[in-house]
Amino acid sequence: MPPQLARNLVARRLASTSAAQTAATDAVETLAGTVPLHTSYLFLHLRNPISELPSKPQSRLFNTIRSRALDWGCLVNLCHSIDDEAYNINKVALRSCGDADLLEGCKATLYTPSAGNVGLEIRDIQGDNVEEKLATISPLFGVHAKPVVPTIMKSDSDVQLYVCTHGSRDCRCGDEGGRVLRAIRDHLRSRDLSLKVSVNETAHVGGHKYAANVLVFPHGDWYGNLRAENVPNALDVALAASPSKRSSEPPDQTLSRFWRGRMGLSKSQQIDLIS
């Protein structure tokens, strides 16, 4: 091969490698700002593992709650934990189409700044009392000027983790999310914890390509691209977070490249916070 041609080939390869590295760096740097603006988050607990859900689960009860909550700036999702299997509700199935197999009942956990740095539990939500249950939380969103009724209880856990494992929606969530979920449970069993930690699976949160996605409450931080080897450090950060942590505090530097955003921040605020 002529020397000049060889030099040209090497130069092109170097340029291609540099462009790929730049693109990879940009992808990491722009992970912040990938969380939609929301002021609160409401999880509906299922006895069904998330692995049993269809790609796009729906129900009248879920749709009623989500429609009202979206008006309040609150995202709604489905979740499952081992504790939910003992909860006294019917074994429910969610339909992907048609009118059969509706979600008949559930409990819910709400995270909203107006409630302080805790999760609020709303139990025994059914189709015939959903309006009453929604009325109990509407004062938290300034909808009605009356106190919240005492049927809402504070969550008994200090830190709540939600890992997207919705494999029927995207296999990456099932595969990577499943591995991270197992790693979290394994590491928690090996630790002497002073805090009570709740570990949950969650349905689609948005951003399959960022799997594994993990949401950390009560502060509402979203992390993406996590792998099992990142779990020890991620747990250290989550368990060390101050209960009085403010939404304006930047994420821990050791997790900044995984940080997608936070509840209560716009996309531009998320980007500004990490830059």
Features:
275 residues; alpha+beta; Glutaredoxin; 2 domains; 10-stranded mixed sheet; Thioredoxin-like_sf; Sucraseferredoxin-like protein; Aim32/Apd1-like
Write the layout of secondary structure elements.
Blueprint: H1 3-29, E1 40-45, H2 60-71, E2 74-80, E3 105-111, E4 119-126, H3 130-137, E5 153-154, E6 159-164, H4 171-189, E7 197-202, E8 214-217, E9 221-223, H5 231-240, E10 259-262, H6 267-274
Parallel strand pairs: 1-2, 6-7
Antiparallel strand pairs: 1-3, 2-7, 3-4, 4-5, 6-8, 8-9, 9-10
Describe the structure.
It is a single chain. The chain is 31% helix and 19% strand. By secondary structure, it is of the alpha+beta class. It folds into two domains: 40-154, no CATH class; 159-274, Glutaredoxin (3-Layer(aba) Sandwich), CATH 3.40.30.10. Strands 5-4-3-1-2-7-6-8-9-10 form a ten-stranded mixed sheet. The longest helix is centred in the N-terminal third of the chain and has 27 residues, at 3-29. The protein is globular. The termini are far apart. It comes from Sistotremastrum niveocremeum HHB9708. Pfam families: Suc_Fer-like (PF06999). InterPro entries: Aim32/Apd1-like, Thioredoxin-like_sf.
Sum this structure up briefly:
This protein has 275 residues and is an alpha+beta fold.
Shape-level CATH architecture of the largest domain: 3-Layer(aba) Sandwich
Number of domains: 2
How would you spell out the order of helices and strands?
A: HEHEEEHEEHEEEHEH
In order across it, which strands form the biggest sheet?
Answer: 5-4-3-1-2-7-6-8-9-10
Number of strands: 10
Using the CA coordinates, give the radius of gyration.
21 Å
Distance, first to last CA? 47 Å
- Based on secondary structure, the structural category is alpha+beta
- Sketch the major β-sheet: 10 strands, mixed
CATH topology-level fold name of the largest domain: Glutaredoxin
